[in-house]
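COMPLEX REQUEST
Ligand: SAJ
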Amino acid sequence: MLFSKICVLGLGYIGLPTAAMFASRKLSVIGVDINKSTVDTVNLGQIHIVEPGLKEVVQTAVNKGFLYASQTPLVADAFLIAVPTPIQFPDGCDMLPQSDLSYIKAAIQSISLVLKKGNLVVIESTSPVGTTELVAGWLAAARPDLTFPQSHGSASDIRIAYCPERVLPGHVIKEIVANDRIIGGMTRACSNLAVDLYSVLVEGKCHITNARTAEMTKLTENSCRDVQIAFANELSIICDELDIDVWELISLSNRHPRINILNPGPGVGGHCIAVDPWFIISKTPDKSPLIRAARNVNNDKPKWVINQIDKALLEFLKENPEKSMKDIIVACYGLTFKANIDDLRESPALQITTKFSYSHQGKILVVEPNIHSLPGDISHLELVTKEKAFEVAHIHVLLVDHVEFETGDIPRGKIVDTRGVWCNSSV
Ligand code: SAJ
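STATUS: Structure written out below.
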């Protein structure tokens, strides 16, 4: 085998499964994270994130000695960078968000100390176009004793490639093996070496391209989904205005052989689709009006949902003149960013519940079968079972299509259904 030891930097939602899965193929893997408690957790064979099937893979890999976590990188044959690349939103409202590459820079700095001739460096973190070239420049500056692809082409001592992760949270263990990979080497020799590495694990096809195209492929995939969801979200607002059931409309339109409209919802959440389009927009602001408009449509959807709840409150008061606003009990169903997970990051459902709780004078109940306690801003609200909420709430706001809400009865009372679970006359 060309690779016997690899180092994965960043033990988060992507890095930890990647490290553990390579270790499951009997590669010796050093998982590196700056967070001591993450390192300690992994070395105990445990995990700090929720991902079905991951715990077992980590436990086995650690117990068999193939996975070891550390706060600093060690000498290895290949280095995979899977650290966060957050977007910073500046205060001025007309300023575009900027990507923060400081975690990548710090990771590169740390591996430059142990880098040796023949090493492969792969960036997996979602990044703006041009990042791989930047990384190559940082490494060359840190290690003038080694040669790099930007100056020595295919004969370089160090090979560098960009290979984006494309796994769906909740299905990572399956998709990390099954999905095709895009391999963007800085030279053909870089790509070939990266294919050799991923072939240890990946059963999908490895498609070779250059680094810039590979970077843009990842951003394109998530921006494409964002634009498509924005179309569905815009349709839901138009249909409400025109008194049409959007679910029936989409289901009928999707009977056309070349139409496949996605599902509207309360907005787009998570740490990928709501973020990645900005990497394109901030690089090419004058050339990306459609991607930007889609981002705005999806970003504004939670506000529209809150208006719908306010409308339902007023209707309820009109129908029940003996009641006042503070008598109305509202139940919010689901807090996570999508169905059947426990991840609250960038969740529109959480945003809606939190914002609504600032204005509503009456009681708010929350039903979220995937968590045990409510997060900080809404910890004063009541976390209850679906049955309890059905029994006492006057207004029912469906925010996430968890399987628990899709089965069984539909609540009595007024319903605001953002996911088409209870109010849906599709064919
Ligand atoms: N959503 C809708 N309507 C839909 C589909 C999704 O409102 O029809 C919402 C979801 O509720 C959620 C958000 O969009 O709030 C994102 O969910 P998702 O399931 O579409 O995607 P993620 O963020 O969990 O994972 C995406 C995936 N990208 C694509 O499908 C193109 C995954 O393959 C990527 O690896 C991941 O981003 C990532 O890490 O970039």
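REMARKS: The chain has a mean pLDDT of 96. Residues 126, 165-169, 221-222, 225, 229, 262-263, 265, 268-270, 272-273, 337-338 surround SAJ (CB under 6 Å).
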